[in-house]
Here is the input.
Amino acid sequence: MAFTTEERGDITLVHASGMLTMNTAPQLREVVSGAITSGARKIAVDLSGVEFIDSSGLGALVGSLKAARQAEGDLRIGGASSQVLMVLKLTNLDRVLTPHESAADAFTA
Amino acid sequence: MPSRPESGATVFSETLTVEPPMLETLHGLLAQVWEANPQVGMLDRMAFDTALIELVGNMVRHSPAGGPFNCRATVRILPDRLIGEFEDTTPPVIGVEIEREMPEEDMESGRGFALMQSLGHLEHQPGESGNLWIFERKLEG
Here is the structure.
């Protein structure tokens, strides 16, 4: 699992790749937390490279969303695979983490 | 309650070490299972993968073993269902409620068992000699 961040205007893109599971979920929390500390308020998590997510990964996304909102920002997701879309829907998390076609467009679409 | 299927249906059975890296190992092993069994539809593969990897994560999380332990992992493909079994010889896992409601959207944990139950039927049989976890999914195609 790898995470990289990219600034695009006032949006911070967090690119994730690999499996987002209990092994890697803490890293996502750290990356997003670090971005917020650095001043990021609009965070878009690019899930196009995530081949699999489990409930720990979902928990990290929820925690990151809450952290962004507590900082008066927002976190959105884009590029989710079929498996990610399936678990978002089954867990009802698609209500708070609306999947966007692309993370880059998550704040404009 | 899942029944033990006929022996001819077993496509995978080996001893694995239950520890966090096993999630990635199991994902790779299941990919090989699907490559050899293309008749199983994408939705069923995805659901089965999700449930089994979730299950192993919960075995790691809830095990009283206090560290890595071995289990016998078996995958069976039948004409109408998929079955995954994990059998270990660690102390029985007790106090884990596997029938759970899906948590509210703002909760950061507690979704694992509810997610598994939404994908099929999960059963846990703790015993004096270890634990048997069985996940069964009826094929949707």
The beta strands of chain A are 2-8, 11-20, 42-53, 74-78, 99-100. Chain A touches chain B at residues 19, 21-23, 52, 54-56, 58-60, 62-63, 66, 82-83, 86-87, 90-93, 95-96 (CB under 8 Å). Chain A is about 35% helix and 35% strand.
